[in-house]
Amino acid sequence: MTSPQALPTPATNAGQEGLDALLAHPDKALIGLDLDGTLAPIVADPEKARAHPEAVPALAALAPKVAAVAVITGRPAEVAVRNGGFADVPGLEHLVVLGHYGAERWDARTGEISAPPPHPGVAGVRTELPELLERLGASQGTWIEEKGRALAVHTRRAADPQATLELLRGPLTGLAGRHGLIVEPGRMVLELRPPGMDKGVALTEFAREIGAGSVLYGGDDLGDLPAYSAVDRLRADGTPGLLVCSGSDEVTELRERADLVVAGPEGVVRLLAALADRLG
Questions:
Q1: Is 14 in a helix, a strand, or coil?
Q2: Confidence class of residue 30 from pLDDT cuts 50, 70 and 90?
Q3: 38 CB-near residues (< 8 Å, 6+ apart)
Q4: First to last CA, the chain
Q5: How distant is the alpha carbon of residue 152 from its chain centre?
Q6: Is 66:27 a contact under the CB 8 Å cutoff?
Q7: Between 166 and 46, residue with greater pLDDT
Q8: Other beta carbons within 10 Å of 256
Q9: 205 close to 103: Cβ distance less than 8 angstroms
Q10: Most buried residue among 5, 106, 128, 247 by CB atoms closer than 10 A?
Q11: pLDDT tens digits, one per residue of 93-119
């Protein structure tokens, strides 16, 4: 594995306080991380997304030194575990995967997934979505990702991905609404999923569950903004936090709110490795 880099300096006082708290009391620290775009590079076919090759070694070095590591993702927990390569890895006993924005939970200690029944609206959307795309002339160049508890329409393969995304935004929002779902926009993707759960809710509930004394959250996309807001609320309640952006030119909102911007998944991996090295 590449030698850890020196810890970067957060650009904000709040971020520095979060980092200082993490280093002072790592046994109370929660490390929350998105998967795609943060631990795994973005690829044209989401089914082929895999964690950066140094991500698992960095996590295995860091996880035993903190209270917990939570990978929070919109993907099904089983898919995230597979794509991340998290199963049966020594050192990852303190890792959980909160899939479907927290609706599913995989615990590395047991290897088991717990989850409630799926929202009934997903089945209705699944039936109507292909015909809607065909009617809009968007069946070519788009791709429907089946997530079990949600469906996502990707436009990255389209001739004009951004224009196709905007074409679909209104009709998909209408379709989702008719079935009691919402639309979550992302990097050339629109996800139709049940309301009530997001990465912010998942992060907050898990932080409270373990009694986190500090929280680091790293993300790259619009779906990570609720987690950023959750860290802001935790800070206001007295829990220091550090917001990390896995840098992307496609999403500027996270850059503007982050305490620390790193160079994509490689930068995230280097940060995790540097934290593990500092904590000894």
A1: helix
A2: very high
A3: 218, 219, 220, 224, 246, 265, 268
A4: 16
A5: 15
A6: yes
A7: 166
A8: 9
A9: no
A10: 106
A11: 999 999 999 999 999 999 999 988 889
State the amino acid at position 85 in one-letter form. Answer: G
Amino acid at 261: V
- What is the C-alpha separation between 195 and 184, in angstroms, rounded? 10
CA contacts within 13 A on the Cβ side of 50: 5
Instruction: Read off the tokens for 224.
Output: 């990570």
Whether pLDDT at 219 is above 60: yes
Name the phi and psi angles at 257, rounded to 5: -100, -15
Alpha carbon 163 to its chain's center: 25
Its pTM stands at 0.81
* Distance between CA atoms of residues 14 and 253, nearest Å: 18
Identity at 33, one-letter amino acid code:
L
Alpha helices in 63-198 (DSSP H): 77-84, 121-135, 161-178
Nearest to 265 by CA among 99, 37, 14, 1: 37
At 87 the three-state DSSP class reads: coil
45-75 burial: b if 16+ Cβ within 10 Å, else e: ebeebebbebbbbbbbbbbebbbbbbbbbbb
> What are 124-158's pLDDT values in tens digits?
999 999 999 999 999 888 999 998 889 999 999 99
Q: In angstroms, what CA-CA distances link 196 with 97, 182, 201?
A: 18, 9, 8
Q: Residues 6 or more apart from 162 whose CB is under 8 A from it? A: 155, 188
In 3D space, the residue among 89, 70, 74 whose CA is nearest the CA of residue 29 turns out to be 70
Over residues 234-257, the mean pLDDT reads 92
If you search the block for the tokens 């082929």, which residue do you land on? 48
Burial-class residue 252 by CB neighbours within 10 Å (0-12, 13-18, 19+). Answer: exposed
